[in-house]
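Input record, target 12 of the design panel.
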């Protein structure tokens, strides 16, 4: 089931893209104060994004981002609300929480974003996790996610597997246009 996104949420995202976090925060607060639950959900996700990324006029606040993403996960528990929680947990270097949220996300659905999250978790937190990280990045790349190609190359270079990294880069260059045509904008999704 596809739901429509509130126009204030769309406007807030456009403001965030321009670095105008205060304006986006005002729109998000208006959504959170709404009488409808779906608008409040959009508001909490938007506020989480504002506090996670910050902007020209607002510093990031990961604690407030976690609080808003947690509220969104209570209203609509799904793969994406828990991915937000995992991503901010990793930014806070709270790796046990990140792993817990990634596992919950995977229980809902194993999306390319979840695979990227596991790859980043193994790359960042587990010193001997390079082979596991590469495995997750390859799975994400096979599902058409460009970030999987880049992640695999980065990890391969970090462990001096330069020919494997070069091979993955060549594969990305050759397959990139076909993936973009077949999958479209979803190929650019990040964790």
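The sequence produced for target 12 reads:
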């Amino acid at each position: 089931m596809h739901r429509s996104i509130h126009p204030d949420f769309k406007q807030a995202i456009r403001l965030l893209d321009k670095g105008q976090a205060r304006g986006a925060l005002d729109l998000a607060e208006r959504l959170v104060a709404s009488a409808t639950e779906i608008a409040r959900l959009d508001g909490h996700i938007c506020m989480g994004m504002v506090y996670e990324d910050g902007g020209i006029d607002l510093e990031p606040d990961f604690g407030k981002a976690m609080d808003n993403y947690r509220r969104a996960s209570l209203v609509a528990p799904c793969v994406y609300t828990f991915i937000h929680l995992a991503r901010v947990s990793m930014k806070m270097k709270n790796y046990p929480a990140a792993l817990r949220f990634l596992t919950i996300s995977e229980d809902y659905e194993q999306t390319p974003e979840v695979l990227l999250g596991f790859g980043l978790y193994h790359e960042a937190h587990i010193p001997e996790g390079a082979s596991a990280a590469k495995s997750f990045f390859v799975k994400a790349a096979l599902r058409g996610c460009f970030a999987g190609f880049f992640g695999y190359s980065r990890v391969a270079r970090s462990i001096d597997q330069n020919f494997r990294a070069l091979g993955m880069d060549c594969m990305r260059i050759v397959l990139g246009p076909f993936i973009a045509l077949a999958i479209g904008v979803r190929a650019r999704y990040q964790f």
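The CA atoms of residues 36 and 42 lie 10 Å apart.
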